[in-house]
Amino acid sequence: MVRTRVHNQFVSLDGYSAGEYVTFDQPIGDASRLFGWFDGRVIEGVHRVQEPVTLDRALFSMWGQGIGAEIMGRRKFGPQQGPWPDDGWRGWWGEQPPFKTPCFVLTHHPREQMVFENGTSFHFVDDTPEEVLRRAKEAADGLDVRIGGGPTTVRQFLRADLIDFMHLVIVPITLGRGVSLWHDVTGFEDRFALESVSSSSGLTHQLWNRRSTGS
Amino acid sequence: MVRTRVHNQFVSLDGYSAGEYVTFDQPIGDASRLFGWFDGRVIEGVHRVQEPVTLDRALFSMWGQGIGAEIMGRRKFGPQQGPWPDDGWRGWWGEQPPFKTPCFVLTHHPREQMVFENGTSFHFVDDTPEEVLRRAKEAADGLDVRIGGGPTTVRQFLRADLIDFMHLVIVPITLGRGVSLWHDVTGFEDRFALESVSSSSGLTHQLWNRRSTGS
């Protein structure tokens, strides 16, 4: 069974998953405090960080397991808005994006794909969630598809009932403003089974598994 | 930093990690109830099982992350005792052992190594834990070394203070007899920081990180 999975989606106590303003200096807007708990290298495995193997790190490390493609929102790829400027931008990550799979970037302004030597490629698509997911599954070649965020993208797929698994991380801070993960989302919890656990750091990990998974 | 790690070491409430009698029919002796909670495929990642991504499965899936070699006791490799019979035995796993790295098998009866097409090899060594670990680290080529069990082997390395991380899984059953993980082990807990969490299945996961890690 091929799954559509969300990993390491950080959410503040007041429901925000990103800041309001994304700029070149602030890739996640004014919400960087959400990610203070996170050494990004652990997405490649607990061995990639020197620090102890904690519950937090163990759960973060699921990110890449069996993932064959990612779908992301345009803001995860870059801060530009509207038609793409001719600025040579190839994403936040330089020539070594961590994805190492095809990535489908949702945008109303399609453009040429970008291919990197480490297996990452970016494909810019303007289509329905269902159609983008169909293409991503095809590209994933039997592996799972990650919905990589940001919150607007996760919410869009959640409302379309296209998500099979979500690992949310409830961060014990408030942001007061930002992009909510929950705006206009109601009743989704009835479709999922939840296992929830808090770690010694104060984070709460929620593992949401869709009860009856389509494919 | 290269770590020496133990993963998915199941322990009963009364401290047993294997049965007393290992035979061809009973690879883990009469203690198979310890493993009823475990679908072994998950060691390759949570995507390998159809079932929901639970806390248990998430933690089990760390097993192979960044591991470059394993050290195992002789009984994990086979039920034979004394000099090796000429029986063509190549381990419990057929021609697809799950390890996919060099594995060092502790035995007082060294023999020729065995090499498999999937990257697994078995090297039979009669040496001190320190020396076997030195060889395993060399073979791991910068990755971590897993102490793969059984309990006698884990205990031996624990007593020699050669373990940096242990994921123990406390299973809510008693066995009454078997091979204890804790026989003659005292005071080890002072050398480790412990994070402990129980899952909805009733298992308790203990993540033991050595406080001051050598290399």
UniProtKB/TrEMBL annotation, chains A, B:
One of its GO terms (molecular function) is DNA binding. Keywords: DNA-binding. It comes from the Bacteria. InterPro entries: DHFR-like_dom_sf, RibDG_C, Riboflavin_Biosynth_HTPR. Residues 8-189 form the Bacterial bifunctional deaminase-reductase C-terminal domain. Pfam families: RibD_C. This is DNA-binding protein. SUPFAM superfamilies: Dihydrofolate reductase-like (SSF53597). It comes from Leucobacter muris.
